[in-house]
Amino acid sequence: MTDKNRLRIAVQKSGRLNEGSMKLLKAIGVKLSIRDRLLIAHSTNLPIDLLQVRDDDIPGLVMDGVVDLGFIGENELEEKALERAAAGKASDYDVLTKLDFGDCRLSIAVPKEMSYAGPQDLAGCNVATTYPYLLERFFKQQGVNATALMLTGSVEVAPRAGLAEAICDLVSTGATLEANGLVEVQEIFQSKAVLIQRKGDMPVAKQALIDKLMPRIAGVMQAKESKYIMLHAPKDKLTEVTALLPGAENPTLLPLANCENTVAMHVVCTETLFWETMEKLKALGCSSILVMPIEKMMG
Ligand SMILES: Nc1ncnc2c1ncn2[C@@H]1O[C@H](COP(=O)(O)OP(=O)(O)OP(=O)(O)O)[C@@H](O)[C@H]1O
Ligand SMILES: O=P(O)(O)OC[C@H]1O[C@H](OP(=O)(O)OP(=O)(O)O)[C@H](O)[C@@H]1O
Ligand SMILES: [Mg+2]
């Protein structure tokens, strides 16, 4: 049984977005008792229920107000919004935040022996895809008369199987395309995971919980990008040292015992420190350079 007063969040049950979504929930302090085969999981420390579903179902669950929040890829969200618009259905939602996982692009790819100079070369072709609405929108924008052939899986084998001349599928490293003798020729949509909220009235307590969780999400993402740096720096090189450390405008400086010309510097850097920067710090006379991960941050 689910309780309407508990915040309902939809996540992908398994697949590319599952790990990122579950890790983020854990990092913001949501404890869950997951039983694999069940659709619903309850939080043991907060009034939150988790619905574990196929990602295709998440936009509709949010847009129809069945769940309060959903973790979803922008590609799937936009595809479902176009599909609903074509069926005369509204697709209201708010994007609460972009997330730092699920980065990919929706691209057209062709067999490597096929020549491709531009979208017009697809005129008269069948292009296999799981995202027919996004692809048809692209064809329309480009004025190309081609067919989006809907396949729910194994899109990359469609040209070899003689079903289509080209495909339009998600790409990240490009390994799947390469393994199937295909070449990416045209990006049509860039995507990452987002957290969305349903429109409409939200009970005060539920909205208060969302407002409490959002800064935690920001804090977790910021912490992942940031590093805590400790080093020993020559006193006469502090300006140059600080200039090498992104986000280090106000470093903490501490004296070192028995060492007049050197101080310890502690600083939170907003970016990962590259080896090249560490080498430059060393060249300036810095030593004992430590780069440490940060688990959580709050401004
Ligand atoms: N290679 C990738 N790298 C990063 N993100 C990806 C990649 N492939 C897909 N995604 C993102 O993850 C989402 C889910 O991808 P996945 O392949 O798990 O979906 P699926 O097969 O449709 O799963 P489901 O069974 O839930 O329908 C995609 O809609 C996209 O936003
Ligand atoms: O460019 P790449 O890094 O190879 O990633 C792209 C592949 O990743 C996704 O599939 P996934 O591996 O999630 O499996 P699926 O096809 O079963 O959804 C997507 O549908 C591509 O096939
Ligand atoms: Mg899916």
UniProtKB/TrEMBL annotation:
Family in the record: Belongs to the ATP phosphoribosyltransferase family. Long subfamily.
Pathway(s) served: Amino-acid biosynthesis; L-histidine biosynthesis; L-histidine from 5-phospho-alpha-D-ribose 1-diphosphate: step 1/9
Lineage: Bacteria, Pseudomonadati, Pseudomonadota, Gammaproteobacteria, Alteromonadales
Reactions catalysed according to its record: 1-(5-phospho-beta-D-ribosyl)-ATP + diphosphate = 5-phospho-alpha-D-ribose 1-diphosphate + ATP
PROSITE patterns in the cross-refs: ATP_P_PHORIBOSYLTR (PS01316)
Cofactor: Mg(2+)
Keywords of the record: Amino-acid biosynthesis, ATP-binding, Cytoplasm, Glycosyltransferase, Histidine biosynthesis, Magnesium, Metal-binding, Nucleotide-binding, Transferase
Ranges annotated as spanning the membrane: none
Protein name (database record): ATP phosphoribosyltransferase
